[in-house]
Amino acid sequence: MGQRLKILNLYAGIGGNRKLWGIEHEITAVEFNPQIASVYADMFPTDTVIVGDAHQYLLEHFEEFDFIWSSPPCPSHSRLRKHVSMHNGSKAIYPDMKLYEEILLLQHYFKGNWVIENVRPYYEYLIQPSVVLGRHPYWMNFKVESKEFSSDGVIKNGVTQALEFKYGYDLSHYDLPDKRKALRNAVNPEMGLYILQSTPVDK
């Protein structure tokens, strides 16, 4: 994959998936949390960063891009969240269906390459993922071979400093309420690069 792409990076977080993409692409990132968006903007000053609703932005702008990456909210699908709620008295919540709405939108309307990342759910998949890499299922419209990545043990058990070291981040000078969560929500940068490099060039 050698061409310059117009990339839409949704629910961008601190940009774990984007970290190793370089500066050759034209990247627009959408993040709802202004503090997190500010970190992303510092890390990737050549990207256009929009503070707003990624789900709505996708609907209104998907036709403007060559490649779309989306990581919609995952806690309502998470096995861990369900386990915790069943054992500590937390209320049940509806699964956030933005995940499947976006899969269906991109499957049927988008002409470029796309990938959606989430967590392994507590229920049977409503739409089977294309591949599972590490802790994450991925839905996409191109083929990616299974591959092992080295970060899963670190992510599962690591403290903030270990996560920063693994992903090459230094959040020490940012006033974020939960740095560990921001890092845990980040996709392994090596995984993000591997998937982008797997995209076909003939779409």
What does this 3D model show about the protein?
The chain is of the alpha/beta class. The protein has a single domain, classed as Vaccinia Virus protein VP39 (Rossmann fold). It has eight helices and seven strands; from the N terminus they run ββαβαβααβββαααα. It has helices at residues 34-43, 54-61, 79-88, 98-109, 152-157, 160-167, 179-184, 189-197; strands at 6-10, 26-31, 48-51, 67-70, 113-117, 131-133, 136-140. A seven-stranded mixed beta sheet has the order 3-2-1-4-5-7-6, sandwiched between helices. β6 (131-133) and β7 form a beta hairpin. It is globular. The mean pLDDT is 89.
The CATH topology is given as Rossmann fold
Proportion of beta-strand residues = 15-25%
Instruction: Give Rg in angstroms.
Output: 16 Å
Shape: globular
Per CATH, the class reads Alpha Beta
Which descriptors would you attach to this protein?
203 residues, alpha/beta, Rossmann fold, 7-stranded mixed β-sheet, 34% helix, globular
Strands, helices and their partners?
Elements: E1 6-10, E2 26-31, H1 34-43, E3 48-51, H2 54-61, E4 67-70, H3 79-88, H4 98-109, E5 113-117, E6 131-133, E7 136-140, H5 152-157, H6 160-167, H7 179-184, H8 189-197
Give a short overview.
The chain is of the alpha/beta class. The chain has helices spanning 34-43, 54-61, 79-88, 98-109, 152-157, 160-167, 179-184, 189-197; strands spanning 6-10, 26-31, 48-51, 67-70, 113-117, 131-133, 136-140.
